[in-house]
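Question: Now follow the chain.
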Amino acid sequence: MTSTVQIPPPVTRAPRTRGQRSSFARKAVAVFVMLVGATFIAMTLVVNLFSVGPAFERLTDGFRPVMTQQSLSTAREDISRLDGAGTELRTTLLPALASQLRLTPQQMNTMLQTQYPAVAAGVGALPTIVPSFNGLVTTLDQQRDLFASADAIPTKDLPATTLPWALLVTGVVVFGLGIYTWFAPRAGAVVAVVVGAVLIAVPLILSLPQKAADADQLNANLKPVYTQQLITQAGGALTTLSAMGTQMQTKMLPDLATQLKMSPATLQAYLGKYFPNTAAALNNLPASLGRFQNLVATFRGHLSDYNTLKPVELAPIVWTMIAGGIALMLIGGLGAWASRPRLGSIT
């Protein structure tokens, strides 16, 4: 008797139905929407925007007064007076005084070094101080347009501190929209398209890509100069100038008036007539030093803010928001198409 072995038929899986494919697409749409929201939330935290935003606002508030055309023009006038006085002192005034006092140039220099060391130090430092401050003011003047653009982030009326909150809230809303889309695929997809359009339109309407690019360029231009070394050197230069001016007014000029047998008023008139650059610089030195000290104090007071901003680029953040909006529109459109009513599905 022969036995027959029964071979079971191969197991075949039923092809995925159109409904199953549609259900998978709808769930995938919800997951992608949540990923966009999570990206916004992660960017807010990873880039440390809750520190960057306030630092940016403090820095622009602090520099706004010194970045005006009037402020920079006044600084240039102060520098020009110092430059003229320094040249006049070295080439005309000190040789004339040496002649009046019957001293050789070497003897005059020795007298300055021993009796008026602060004046000697200031006269010697002016050829370095003037180009240094002139370069700084020129750099700031060249950044005025970039600063004005960056200062308007997000708008002239809204502070930069609103940006991290706006991005975080947007991320939370979009993430929540993804959860909603999971349970209400078609409605959620339609809302995703609308939210995506808003995320594209608002940055473009506010010119945020251009403003962010200007802020990044401003950041790059300031990196070589905005350092602790600059602040230390500028502070030392102002100390030297202040000491020079004080010693000239309180000791050197009164002594010279006595030696030349002039009254203080006559000596001042003499300087004004024959050495106008020096006289003008001395008369304006207290006000000029005050303005320069304010400028250096601004740099010093906001160095930590700038160091917080320095490693951050704003343009990629803005373009990520726009890219997220585009993604939401595409994903939402796909979800709306996948969840559209089928003909014959309604009985």
